């Protein structure tokens, strides 16, 4: 399509500002409206970000009645589902923040709504736009590792429990597994070509989050601060996934891919995958010798957040498919959903995802 790309933003909290700043750098984009359930918040956001001509609303359905080409969904996790589906049903393309949703069922409904509407539903995983993530995928997909039979991913912050809406079950739906876990899952799963998850066996805990010694909002802590899961993937590989918002440890280890011909180890500077890639090492057996090849990390100054918003705008403009399709990210959500269900029941659970 030619001409101006008309955008609406639903939810005007912290991350909406990053969306607005990215859109403002694109001359072809006009932010036409902002909606937030807190009366007056959208208007204040419009003023603060100098979004000249944008209209504030208290209800996202009023925003969706406008002629818009796309919307950014920047609400807390629980509202991604309703607002995205309403936007798709109203004929709008959608960029939703991560995690995609709160349950697998919600994610499936969102992907189905996108298919039915023939509109883009893309999920905002900005680490994908780090050239090193693309390099990791290129190595895994090259076949040089042989058959990949074990993958370990996740990460941990020594102290990093967020407050506010992130620790409320009714707004976030889940804690660390969804908040930062979705990034590590996306790194590993995208590199593998997003195989279907088949079963999950998991444990989650909240011991540090509920302790006033380690978290100032302990009395309000309602989600998990730690989790570990074993996931069987279609094709036979096993994924070991672990995440912590707070722990008495420096790291939960690297992301690694074990293959029959080589192993790949990847580390990140902040222990979680929203902060870039620190090192990539390939372990092999060459000429009867055990070799460790340091793959140079691509140095760059790419603004990954800008790139994710730009990719959405370009897909709308050029009539391209979703850059990070909801129909695939359903598999990421399925693992998080499986973790919570398995941890709640104490049993391994089967994952069933319909064709979308
Ligand atoms: N990609 C990233 O780097 C990144 C970073 C932080 C947060 N996030 C994600 O962005 C989302 C929002 O996080 P945040 O930190 O901005 O939260 P926030 O609480 O600061 O803002 C969310 C806003 O949405 C509003 N809201 C709630 N329900 C709504 C609805 N139905 N319609 C319209 N507005 C509604 C709230 O009133 C609030 O103003 C979360 O899903 C979070 O996981 C992504």
Shape, principal axes of CA atoms: globular
DSSP summary: helix tally: 11
State the secondary-structure class: alpha/beta
Query: Under the CATH scheme, which class of the largest domain?
Result: Alpha Beta
| Bound molecule kinds, no repeats | nicotinamide-adenine-dinucleotide
CATH fold-level label of the largest domain: Dihydrodipicolinate Reductase, domain 2
Considering DSSP H and I runs of 4 or more, what fraction of the residues is helical? 25-40%
Structural description of this entry:
This protein is α/β, with parallel strands linked by helices. The protein folds into two domains: 5-127 and 304-325, 3-Layer(aba) Sandwich (Rossmann fold), CATH 3.40.50.720; 129-300 and 335-350, 2-Layer Sandwich (Dihydrodipicolinate Reductase, domain 2). Helix content is 32%, strand content 25%. It has helices at 14-24, 41-48, 60-64, 80-89, 104-117, 131-141, 169-172, 176-179, 181-192, 304-318, 326-345; strands spanning 5-10, 29-35, 55-57, 70-73, 93-97, 121-124, 148-156, 197-205, 226-233, 238-244, 255-259, 262-267, 279-286, 289-295, 349-350. The protein has a nine-stranded mixed sheet, with helices on one face. A six-stranded parallel sheet has the order 3-2-1-4-5-6, with helices on both faces. Strand 1, helix 1 (14-24) and strand 2 form a beta-alpha-beta unit. It is globular. The two termini are 26 Å apart. 49% of the residues are buried. Bound molecules: nicotinamide-adenine-dinucleotide. The site of nicotinamide-adenine-dinucleotide has 27 residues, from helix 1.
């Amino acid at each position: 399509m030619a001409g101006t790309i008309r955008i609406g933003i639903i939810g005007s909290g912290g991350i909406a500002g990053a969306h607005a700043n990215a859109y403002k750098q694109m001359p072809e984009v006009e932010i036409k409206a902002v909606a937030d359930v807190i009366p007056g918040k959208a208007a204040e956001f419009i003023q603060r970000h100098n979004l000249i001509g944008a209209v504030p609303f208290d209800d996202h359905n009023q925003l969706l009645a406008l002629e818009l080409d796309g919307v950014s969904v920047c609400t807390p996790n629980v509202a991604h589902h309703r607002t995205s589906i309403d936007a798709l049903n109203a004929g709008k393309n959608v960029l939703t923040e991560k995690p995609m949703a709160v349950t697998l069922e919600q994610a499936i409904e969102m992907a189905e709504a996108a298919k039915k509407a023939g509109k883009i539903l893309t999920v905002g995983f900005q680490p994908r736009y780090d050239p090193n993530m693309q390099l990791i995928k290129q190595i895994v997909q090259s076949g040089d590792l042989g058959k990949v039979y074990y993958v370990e991913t996740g990460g941990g912050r020594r102290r990093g429990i967020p407050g506010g809406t992130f620790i409320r079950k009714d707004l976030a739906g889940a804690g660390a597994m969804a908040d930062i876990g979705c990034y590590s899952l996306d790194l590993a799963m995208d590199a593998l070509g997003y195989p279907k998850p088949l079963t999950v066996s998991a444990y989650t805990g909240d011991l540090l989050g509920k302790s006033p010694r380690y978290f100032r909002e302990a009395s309000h802590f309602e989600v998990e601060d730690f989790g570990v899961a074993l996931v069987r993937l279609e094709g036979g590989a096993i994924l070991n996934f672990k995440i912590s918002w707070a722990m008495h440890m420096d790291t939960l280890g690297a992301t690694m891919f074990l293959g029959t011909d080589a192993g790949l180890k990847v580390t990140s500077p902040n222990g979680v995958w929203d902060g870039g890639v620190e090192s990539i090492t390939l372990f092999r057996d060459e000429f009867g010798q055990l070799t460790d090849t340091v793959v140079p990390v691509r140095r760059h100054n790419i603004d990954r957040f800008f790139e994710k918003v730009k990719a959405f705008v370009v897909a709308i403009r050029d009539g391209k498919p979703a850059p990070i399709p909801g129909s695939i990210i359903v598999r990421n959500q399925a693992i998080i959903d499986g973790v919570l269900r398995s941890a709640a029941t104490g049993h391994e659970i089967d994952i069933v995802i319909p064709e979308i």
